[in-house]
Specification:
By secondary structure, this protein is mainly alpha-helical. The protein contains eleven helices and seven strands. Helices cover 61% and strands 10% of the residues. The longest helix has 37 residues, at 276-312.
Length: 352
Amino acid sequence: MLITSRETKRWVIPKGNVPPGVEWHRAAANEAEEEAGVLGVLCPTPLGTYRYRKRRGNGASLMVDVEVFPLAVNRELPDWKERAERQRRWFSLADAAEAVEESDLRDLIRSFAASEIKAAVRRATIFETVAKKSGINSMFGWFQRLLPRQGNFFELFEAHVRTVVAGADALGRLVHDGEHRADHVREIIEREHDADEITREVLRVVRQTFLTPFDRSAISSLVGSMDDAIDEMQAAAQAIDLYDLTSFEPEMIDIAAIIVDGTRVLAEAIPLLRNVSENGKRLHELTERLVRMEGHADTIHSAGLKAAYRTYGGGDPMAFVVRREIFNHLERITDALEDVANEIDSIVIDHS
């Protein structure tokens, strides 16, 4: 989504100054609500930065650095603070990149993702593809012609990552909407069951296929690591349901946002495995981002535990124990996503 600037009416992203004492990503979420009228799950790990020249009221034109955070929108407000001063509009990534004037921002938008997030979270049978088929180089094409019709590993990988993305999306809604906890928990459990079906199918096809696009152990490790990620999401959701939590610490919400954005990164990376030799560089960029996000989640996890101990440790130790368990479940999800990144890196090293 882009909005128009107040004075020149050019297309921009929501942005603003960071008030003293406010974390940058929370300031970004506030700006998105005030300027664009959107709410959602905001990942505290930035996508990157860009620079532009801003004209001030005194006539000076100064360079400003902008830190950009991804926001998965789940609600558009019918009325918001700056509605009368701006327009808002959804663009495709390609059209959004062309609409903005800043070259650095244009590059940042283009690098955001090649896949459509809405398609990635849509429910489907295990044999549907996550996205449009990408090109297959001659070697992979030769392998695929030898596979049985039902043995398309790439489609199975992409179907599995769709369940992971959907599970993360439900987890993001869970930490923002405790009132409807039962529905969100149920969806995560259903997505985990879908993922189990796909994992079993991958392992069955591995056993029955003579030639595979990757080493058999690499295929099993990749789908196993993705399955671990959604297993951990289910464990987190069940713990939240067990302890009857309906409100969550800010750090829990931040880690959940990292999980949502991390699965978006995976949704772009997995289809690129169809042509590792051509996509190796991009795959490395995506896995590197996942590793950075996991490190950021570790930092937030430690800060959240300290804050919870200060709040509950003295007067309500059971409340602290419960929150520590939820924090640990969320951290294990980010660890599992990093494991998927490591499996992808191993495939890139072996096949690029």
